[in-house]
Specification:
Elements (H helix, E strand, L loop, with lengths): L1 E2 L6 E2 L16 H17 L4 H10 L4 H43 L1 H24 L8 H8 L1 H4 L2
Antiparallel strand pairs: 1-2
């Protein structure tokens, strides 16, 4: 948050100027930091690399800097997606394995585990190989299952 010295309100750096008085302009360093944080958001939301680079160039970065920043964040995003894909692959495989003994205990649980495994296993394999989310299984749910900090206090 940036605070305008004229009207004493806080506003987000994306506005570039104070929305109330219009006299105060966001410092270039804070706006550049905001643009750097937007790179990940834009890439993960599906914007093309060229559009994100153009957004950075319009924000005051040179073309070389923009290309390097976008490439760096795209690699990081693919690595994160592959990691989630591996987690989905493991959880899907475990669900399929656990569905066999669960069939003899409680059939409805076995069917649920089997169906979940049938979706999570190929989805995880696709994400692991390509570095893109497949959209078959919800990645946030599986990521929540694997988040150790959430379960260990």
């Amino acid at each position: 948050m940036v605070i305008c010295p004229h009207c004493q309100i806080g506003f987000h750096p994306r506005f570039q100027v104070c929305p109330r008085c219009g006299n105060y302009q966001v410092p270039a360093e804070e706006y550049a930091q905001f643009l750097k944080s937007q790179i990940v958001v834009e890439i993960e939301s599906g914007c093309s690399v060229r559009d994100v680079e153009q957004m950075l160039v319009d924000g005051g970065f040179s073309e070389c800097e923009a290309t390097e920043l976008v490439a760096q964040h795209a690699r990081r995003g693919k690595r994160r997606t592959r990691t989630r894909g591996f987690g989905r692959l493991v959880v899907g495989g475990l669900a399929l394995l656990l569905s066999v003994p669960a069939y003899f205990i409680l059939k409805i649980v076995a069917i649920g585990l089997f169906l979940f495994g049938c979706f999570a296993l190929p989805s995880g394999l696709y994400s692991l190989i390509t570095g893109r989310d497949s959209g078959i299984a919800p990645p946030d749910f599986v990521q929540g299952l694997l988040d150790a900090k959430r379960w260990i206090k």
